[in-house]
Specification:
There is one protein chain. The chain is α/β, with parallel strands linked by helices and 367 residues long. It has 2 domains: 9-145 and 328-364, Quinone Oxidoreductase, Chain A, domain 1; 148-304, Rossmann fold (3-Layer(aba) Sandwich). The chain has helices at residues 52-59, 139-143, 146-159, 175-187, 201-209, 222-226, 244-247, 266-271, 276-285, 290-297, 311-322, 345-353, and strands at residues 9-15, 25-30, 40-50, 73-74, 78-85, 97-101, 122-126, 130-132, 166-169, 192-197, 213-216, 234-239, 251-259, 301-304, 330-335, 360-364. The longest helix is centred in the middle third of the chain and has 14 residues, at 146-159. The chain is globular, with a radius of gyration of 20 Å. The protein binds NADP nicotinamide-adenine-dinucleotide phosphate. Residues 51-53, 147-148, 151, 170-171, 173-177, 196-198, 202, 217, 240-241, 260-261, 305-307, 352, 355-358 line the site of NADP nicotinamide-adenine-dinucleotide phosphate (NAP).
Amino acid sequence: MMAHPNGKTMNSIGFSKYGKPAQLKKMEVPYPHGFDASKNVVIKVHASSVNPVDKILLSGDLKLVFPVAEFPHVISYDVAGVVEKADSKGVFSVGQPVFARVWSDVDDDKKTPWFRGAMAEFCVARTSDVVTKPDNISFEEAASIPLAGMTAFQVLKESGLKEGNSVFISGGAGGVGTMAIQLAKHVFKAGLVVTTASKGEKMDLCKSLGADEVLDYKSESFVTAYGNDDSTKFDVCFDTTAEGLEMVKIIKEGGRIVSIAGTPTLDEIRRIGGTAWILKLFLKRKVKRKEYKAAQSMNANWTYLFLSPSHEDLSTLANHLESGVIKPVLDGVWDFHSEDSEDGWQGAFNRSFSGRAKGKCVVQISS
Ligand SMILES: NC(=O)c1ccc[n+]([C@@H]2O[C@H](COP(=O)([O-])OP(=O)(O)OC[C@H]3O[C@@H](n4cnc5c(N)ncnc54)[C@H](OP(=O)(O)O)[C@@H]3O)[C@@H](O)[C@H]2O)c1
């Protein structure tokens, strides 16, 4: 890793090689430097959150498509903090409270790769990804929003969900699901929001967020509950649990299923700029997904969506947070400075990587 010219360092959570979650370590890395100051800001990080993709990135399963440019790699894509170093164009000013979904290619100059995540005392973010934090939410709450919130919003837009429509959202208690329920009900004004969660507090949470019906997925099948009669089928299905194929049985003719879990489609990898050679290899094989074919045979539509960081979408979410239309949902907040395996930063990763979280797992870095 390129050393800071003055040797200045900062603390971070990251990994030095691909592997299991145990590879994640507290580590000292160079303070941000060497990036294009006209397009980026440095953020003093107050909080950062964990997403399932962090585990996939750490495992190396993404390395053919999105290789880590340089080790050690600082983990996490979600940040909330204050601007420490403004961009030279003056889009942001020092001290401004902001949040962002940090993307890897913050420096377009491939000769000086600057691949840094958000779980550090400071991080670099493209000005085009950074949005002012709403005053009425904490830094911890703000850090829970960008990746999961923008994914939920982009899927609902892509699905064409209209006021009064019915929507089925699988995995309602997760980071994406908790946002999707609220957006579907309160922003897109869906007429019927149905979701799946396990019994007890997760079902209660989904109802409190706006779900009209919640199915206990451990004891009931959504196909049995909604697939036997055309009148109970849905205009839109939002798949956060890799159950897109089953959703073909509950989608209306002309309806749309959008998946975010499981293996992405090649078209989608290409759209977001995945590594070119592997795309060509796969595209030659012209792989067609079974979900796509099954949906087509029912005159419905199936697509896979990968989040694209969007200033406009995060700004829209900020407005909805500010007006209280949607609320952050936190499973918990863990301490960056503690090495305790439960209360310290490792606790956030253990909880999120277990796949059992109720909303988002956030790490507080400074108060
Ligand atoms: N394509 C993209 O751009 C994109 C973006 C964000 C996320 N994702 C993917 O989307 C998926 C969801 O992400 P997330 O952040 O929401 O995950 P998450 O927060 O880790 O989801 C955990 C929650 O999902 C519930 N759950 C697990 N399996 C379920 C099932 N079969 N039915 C109903 N609920 C179930 C768990 O409840 P229980 O404890 O009751 O099981 C838990 O509450 C992940 O696979 C992630 O990688 C993709």
